[in-house]
Amino acid sequence: MSFSALGLFPALLNPIEAAGYTQPTPIQQQVIPAVLAGRDVLGIAKTGSGKTASYVLPILHQLQQVGAFKYREPTVLVLVPTRELADQVQRVFNEFLPALSERQTCLAIYGGVSINPQMQEIGKANILVATPGRLLELIEKNAVKLSSIRILVLDEADKMLNLGFKAEVDQLLARLPAQRQNLLFSATLSADLSLIQQLILRNPQVIEVAEDAGDIDLIHQLAYLVSEEKKGPLLRYLIQQGNYQQVLVFASSTLKTDAIVNKLVKNRIHAASIHSKLSQQTRRDVLQQFKSGQLRVLVTTDLLARGVDIEFLPCVINYELPRSPKDYVHRIGRTGRADSPGDAISLVSPEEAAHFQLIQKKMGKRVKTLSGDVIV
Questions:
Q1: Which of 86-95, 146-155, 238-247, 336-345 bottoms out in mean pLDDT, i.e. has the lowest?
Q2: Where are the alpha helices (DSSP H) in 76-218?
Q3: pLDDT tens, 320-364?
Q4: Could you tell me which residues come within 8 angstroms of residue 117 by beta carbon, excluding any fewer than 6 positions away?
Q5: How far is CA 279 from CA 129, 233, 270, 339, in A?
Q6: Is there a contact between 143 and 122 (Cβ–Cβ < 8 Å)?
Q7: Is the pLDDT of residue 240 over 80?
Q8: SS3 of residue 288 by DSSP
Q9: Considering the chain, what percentage of its residues have pLDDT values greater than 70?
Q10: What are the E-state strand segments in 243-307?
């Protein structure tokens, strides 16, 4: 199937091709026609499946049909859990906005940066990509109203709810007009997500793109059973021995990410962490360095990794296991993309061994496990 067969207006097809999209992904094949038809949508698909473009493209199609920007208020609202994801979604909108016959603008708003420039720019934008807390701040300062919103998108809704944003999301929903199109996207379907789905979606088209077993098969998984105190030396050994030039390391907390980086740097391995306590400019710079290959190792948590999207990432290392087996699959799915193989390595302490057994059971795949203590 081609993008031209999905019903998008013709002027979008050239920038789609220029962006390197050859054919729609499975989530795009189903979501784009549903959004164009005006349906509410619940989309369940892993990170990296192309779901951002699956809603950006039909939203721009609808804006093209509506015509000129008639309000001093936004008409499209995309809520996201992190600054990095807000920047990423804005980049996708901006990639295709020039195809519209009349000028429309997209603005990403989030905390961690000065609010004043956002207050000045927000009146010019009809597409807002926002984290809930900063958007509420701007509403309280009378900088923006949501009474003209016609399309609402909740992206990475599972993370938004897990991070405790539900109360803020509820406040924002109460300020939106009742008549609107609602698009809800998530990597997983949890009990909390089912609840918010029932609250905001009206007769939704449910689109779930299952994990492709072939995707996981492209990933060479390996685990090392190792004591906690030897995880650091083993991590450094694996990076050097494998001669990996680009490694994404997952840890459980901001404190742990910094501790891991300090040890790597002391051992002359170019590494940096990315977490919520860093300034937004620092986070943006670190992410860009990693994506461009200037930074060898990026250490992060599940939260911040939502903004890390690299097509040919060679290696992912779980310094600590995630709580959820589904999060494990999402982590390792950062590698093994675009039909290119990748390595996913987990450092499993004796205390994590039982949990790792559960992860393997839920994944339906056994992972070869070696002793890490004999290596370091």
A1: 336-345
A2: 83-96, 115-121, 132-140, 157-162, 166-174, 191-200, 213-217
A3: 999 888 788 878 887 866 566 789 999 999 999 999 999 999 888
A4: none
A5: 19, 29, 20, 35
A6: yes
A7: yes
A8: helix
A9: 89
A10: 247-250, 271-273, 297-300
Q: What would the DSSP string read from start to end of 243-259?
A: T-SSEEEE-SSHHHHHH
Q: Which residues of 274-286 are buried (b: 16+ CB within 10 A; e: fewer)?
A: bbeebeeeebbeb
The residue extents of the domains of the chain are: 3-208, 213-371
Rounded-to-integer distance, Cα 234 and Cα 217, Å: 25
Position of tokens 């984290």? 131
Q: How far apart are CA 12 and CA 96, in angstroms?
A: 7
Pick from 199, 123, 104, 212: which is nearest to 161 by CA? 199
CATH 3.40.50.300 fits 213-371, yes or no: yes
DSSP letter at 212 equals P
Q: At what angle do helices 254-266 and 231-241 cross, to 10 degrees?
A: 60
Phi, psi of 85 (to 5 degrees): -70, -35
Nearest CA-CA partner of 257 in 213, 304, 289:
304
Residue partners of 189: CB distance under 8 A and separation at least 6: 44, 158, 208
Q: Which residue has the tokens 């989530």?
A: 27
CA distance 358 to 226: 18
Tokens of 311: 């097509």
CATH of domain 3-208: 3.40.50.300
The two domains 3-208 and 213-371 share their CATH topology (first three levels equal): yes
What single letter denotes the amino acid at residue 357? Answer: Q
Question: Please, which residues have CB within 8 angstroms of residue 342's CB and are 6 or more apart in sequence?
Answer: 218, 219, 220, 313, 314, 315, 316, 335, 336
Classify strands 315-318 and 247-250 as parallel, antiparallel or unpaired.
Answer: parallel
Q: State the DSSP code for 341.
A: -
Q: Starting at the edge strand that comes first in sequence, how are the strands of the sheet with 106-109 ordered? A: 106-109, 127-130, 76-79, 151-154, 181-186, 41-44, 205-208
Tell me phi and psi for residue 79, to 5 degrees.
-100, 130
